[in-house]
């Protein structure tokens, strides 16, 4: 069988060679040859499959050859080499029953026999690169991408667009090739208007959202959105070269989703960078066109755990001042995504992003603080582990549209950089945060010194209760940030852990205590007038509930009597 397949490949090469020099379709050349010579059924069958397949996909195969044959044009290649590559690429990518390594070995042997002295090495180099990036045994998840391309919303769009050209581009392709879930699709439309987008939106009973003159969004369902842009250049390749990073300058013609590994367009070695886990620029004007891309580079770094290309990192270091041109809301959105990753601190230690953050917040960042905070949150074994589920759930709560975790990580980044007032003001102004978020930051940062003053092995219940009452829910952030600042002091860490333990044990009592005595009752029973004294007594009852000194109404009445008696003695 192996010998017959070798003969079939050699025969296919002869047919393709003849078609090439005579400028006729390969299937016509095959028909002519088969009318003159006889072959075994196995040779004829396999050769016909190779010839017909190569002819069918010849435009895409030739594009791949152009892409991977650096410094060579199709016209400059030897006719034998060119056609060995054509039949071998088809077999490598589309003939499933043949292992990729066999396809390459066979091509190399045929090239050595029929080509020049260098043909074997030349063919091997190109096919090996294609195999590494696009074959079934590639580290990239082509099978996963192919399944994702069959999603009902995308198929619906393809059916609606009919003959109009459209391309899937960017992050959806990148994430799918990495085996990562992605529900946001970027579509590039070859047309003069967004009529097709209107049609697609109506199909789902939606209306497109105009994000800018050249951008429309359709939220198909929760967690699935389509962003549409219009092709601006005469060619797809020109449009892709205007994108930011090579790993996002990938495109698939939506008329050919069945064979993405063959038809995917890669204008700047994006597949190679995906395999090498590298973030690199497509063009040097990317940051001038949109300076937010500097922050996006670190967002991708933190999400994908990739490394920045040296040229990219140096360019950020040199152009960091351009970030001044970006709307604060857009900066906040990028930072939210970065800080939402579990190990964001590691990715914010890079000199370029530290310079960028200093420019944004007008404060020097301290990513080591963030790294330690994330170590506390991610570690399976530490002093805070016993109540980790409660901490995680609590930090997932939102305050004015952002999570407590986001605000906590922000505070950890800039703690120790400046005064309490300056930290809260700088963070709030830099990201255009709301009043609730600003007050939370102010409260947490100002309560850290108060917590340290409480540090005593005996833990006086009245003092701790007073602190828990005043700090309220923000006890969590205060303890965690205090632990970050005192991370070398085990005694302090144990103290913060105990305070946090008390908070979670008595959280409902701290935040929503049972009302033992109302203000009206205090006024009517004890003759207390409305004002500071009334508020002070109610607060002391609450503190005593937290410490356990007051269990019920009788205990509360007794405490009030004691407070009033002491007050009278002091007046005397």
Explain what you see.
The chain is an alpha+beta fold. The model has no long low-confidence stretch (mean pLDDT 92). α6 (100-114) runs antiparallel to α7. Helices cover 62% and strands 7% of the residues.
Topology of helices and strands:
Elements: H1 2-22, H2 26-36, H3 41-56, H4 58-68, H5 79-94, H6 100-114, H7 119-134, H8 142-148, H9 152-161, E1 166-169, H10 171-177, E2 184-189, H11 195-203, E3 209-212, E4 215-221, E5 224-230, H12 236-240, E6 250-253, H13 260-263, E7 265-266, H14 270-276, E8 278-279, H15 286-289, H16 293-304, E9 307-308, H17 310-319, H18 328-339, H19 344-347, H20 351-361, H21 367-378, H22 388-395, E10 398-399, E11 402-403, H23 404-414, H24 420-431, H25 435-453, H26 461-471, H27 475-485, H28 490-505, H29 507-511, H30 519-526, H31 532-547, H32 553-571
Parallel strand pairs: 2-5, 8-9
Antiparallel strand pairs: 1-2, 1-6, 3-4, 4-5, 6-7, 10-11
Stretches where pLDDT falls below 50 for ≥5 residues? none
User: What is the number of domains?
Assistant: 5
Helix content: 55-70%
How is the main sheet built? 7 strands, mixed
Rg is 34 Å
Strand order of the largest sheet: 3-4-5-2-1-6-7
Please tag this protein with its features.
572 residues, alpha+beta, N-utilizing Substance Protein B Homolog, Chain A, Beta Polymerase, domain 2, Hydrophobic Seed Protein, seven-stranded mixed β-sheet, two-stranded parallel ribbon, 32 helices, elongated
């Amino acid at each position: 069988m192996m010998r017959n397949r070798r003969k079939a490949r050699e025969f296919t090469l002869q047919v393709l060679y003849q078609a090439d020099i005579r400028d006729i379709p390969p299937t016509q050349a095959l028909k002519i040859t088969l009318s003159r010579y006889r072959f075994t059924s196995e040779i004829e069958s396999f050769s016909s499959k190779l010839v017909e397949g190569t002819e069918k996909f010849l435009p895409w195969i030739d594009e791949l050859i152009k892409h991977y044959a650096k410094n060579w044009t199709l016209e400059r290649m030897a006719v034998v080499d060119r056609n060995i590559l054509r039949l071998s690429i088809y077999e490598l990518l589309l003939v499933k029953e043949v292992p990729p390594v066999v396809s390459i070995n066979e091509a190399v042997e045929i090239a050595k026999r029929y080509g020049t002295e260098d043909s074997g090495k030349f063919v091997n180099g190109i096919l090996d690169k294609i195999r590494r990036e696009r074959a079934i045994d590639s580290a990239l998840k082509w099978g996963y991408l192919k399944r994702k391309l069959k999603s009902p919303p995308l198929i619906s769009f393809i059916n609606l667009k009919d003959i109009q050209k459209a391309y899937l581009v960017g992050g959806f392709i990148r994430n799918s090739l990495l085996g990562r879930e992605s529900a946001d699709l970027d579509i590039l439309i070859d047309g003069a208007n967004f009529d097709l987008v209107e049609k697609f939106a109506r199909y789902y009973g939606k209306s497109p959202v105009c994000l800018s003159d050249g951008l429309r969004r359709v939220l198909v369902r929760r967690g699935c959105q389509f962003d549409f842009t219009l092709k601006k250049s005469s060619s797809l390749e020109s449009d892709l070269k205007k994108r930011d990073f090579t790993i996002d300058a990938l495109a698939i013609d939506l008329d050919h989703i069945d064979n993405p590994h063959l038809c995917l367009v890669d204008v700047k070695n994006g597949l190679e960078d995906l395999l090498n886990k590298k973030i690199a620029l497509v063009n040097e004007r990317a940051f001038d066109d949109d300076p937010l891309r500097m922050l996006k580079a670190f967002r991708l770094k933190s999400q994908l755990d990739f490394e920045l290309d040296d040229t990219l990192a140096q360019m950020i270091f040199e152009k960091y001042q351009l970030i001044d041109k970006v709307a604060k809301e857009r900066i906040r959105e990028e930072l939210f995504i970065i800080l939402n990753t579990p190990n964001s601190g590691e990715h914010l230690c890079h000199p370029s992003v530290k310079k960028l953050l200093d420019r944004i917040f007008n404060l020097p960042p301290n990513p080591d603080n963030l790294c330690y905070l994330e170590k506390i949150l991610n570690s399976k074994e530490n002093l805070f582990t016993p109540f980790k589920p409660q901490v995680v759930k609590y930090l997932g709560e939102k305050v004015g549209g952002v999570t407590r975790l986001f605000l906590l990580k922000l505070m950890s980044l800039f703690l120790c950089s400046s005064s309490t007032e300056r930290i809260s003001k700088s963070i709030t102004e830099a990201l255009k945060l709301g009043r609730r978020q600003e007050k939370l930051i102010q409260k947490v940062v100002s309560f850290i010194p108060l917590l340290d003053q409480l540090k005593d092995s005996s833990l006086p219940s009245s003092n701790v209760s007073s602190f828990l009452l005043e700090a309220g829910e923000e006890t969590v952030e205060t303890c965690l940030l205090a632990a970050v600042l005192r991370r070398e002091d085990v005694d302090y860490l144990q103290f913060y852990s105990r305070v946090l333990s008390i908070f979670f044990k008595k959280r409902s009592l701290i935040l929503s205590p049972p009302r033992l005595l109302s203000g009206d009752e205090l006024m009517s029973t004890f003759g207390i007038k409305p004002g500071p004294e009334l508020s002070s007594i109610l607060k002391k009852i609450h503190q005593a509930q937290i410490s356990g000194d007051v269990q019920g109404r009788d205990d509360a009445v007794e405490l009030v009597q004691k407070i009033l008696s002491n007050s009278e003695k002091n007046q005397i």
